[in-house]
Amino acid sequence: MVATIEIRTVHPDSENRRIADIFTTVRLHPIESGKCRRSIVFEVGLTQTLGSLRERARMWLHQTQEEVHLVVVIKLLEVPPAQYVTRSGETISRSHARTKQFEWPARQYLFGGRTLEQEISLRSASHNDVADRETTVQQILCDIKVAIAEYLLQADNQGTLIPPLIEPIDATMYEYRRKGSDRVSPELNLLKGRQRVDGIAGNQQKPQAWEPGSTLELGSELQSGEEEEAEGELGSKEEDDPFSEGGDETELDLVSSVEFMHNGSLTPNLPGNSKDLTFRIAEVYGPLPIWTREIRCEHCNWMIPSDLIQTIPPSIREHAPRKIRFPLIDFVECIQRNLPKLRRARAIARADKIVDVAYLRWYEVVQAQETLGQSQ
Length: 376
Description:
alpha+beta, 7-stranded mixed β-sheet, two-stranded antiparallel sheet, 30% helix
């Protein structure tokens, strides 16, 4: 499996390149040909909407020069409470906390009890070089932002920051294939002469109306001019309706879905068959009929079409029906390992906004004072 490598895409009017978060890549037989196939793509999104992730899935399945036949979408969602409770027992609504998050809450925390405007004035007064004033002010603001970011991190670790830098995270995994074709590949006509087993069908049921905010952007950010929502506070664009799936599934078949993370941890009481993301080895070389997932046998080579077998190196062919299992707990732990980096990025972003708001107020006062002095 490989992360963050460009894959060429094909659009009606132009060629472009996109970066998949993760994808599988294998060498095809004969090895001497040097040909590789990228067939399964993973897209992970925190700030992206589920609709935009589905659009990305459509792009991988329909607009690439690679033989991508399966896209695994992992949608993360921050789930803030309706209200917060301070250590003193005071309740604060989510909307009020969101409104006040960029205001410096109290003077006693830092800077000797001074407001941010007073702190900027005090530090600026010690630099009288007018020619270098702009550079000096920018350095002052930077130093203040660093101090506030560290304070925010400390308060967040202590559980006293409202709203916190990261809300509890839920996550759902979706597997998508091309709509309307059991097995479709530009080069492999794998369905020819093969019928679906009677009474066996893939899970085509949509998940319930539940939906799991740069992007934990464990995933990609800005690609080829496409703007995604920047890392922000308190979730994603879907926050007002966190249970809305957003977008549609045009040209996509939902193979399976599972809510595997709840409140920042592995979802409790997952069914045994839902604790792993599972592929047959053959699936990293090309698509298999969906009914093969219902067959438990891991030694039944008859389920692998002969033309697909021919693309698999001989030393691997006897293992082609075997399953590769990715425990969902590993995905949860990967997300958890990335949270400190995201938390620091959020602290810096919030400190930037807090100081910028205070600086604008300070600058307006300074300008007013200068104007008044000139008029006198």
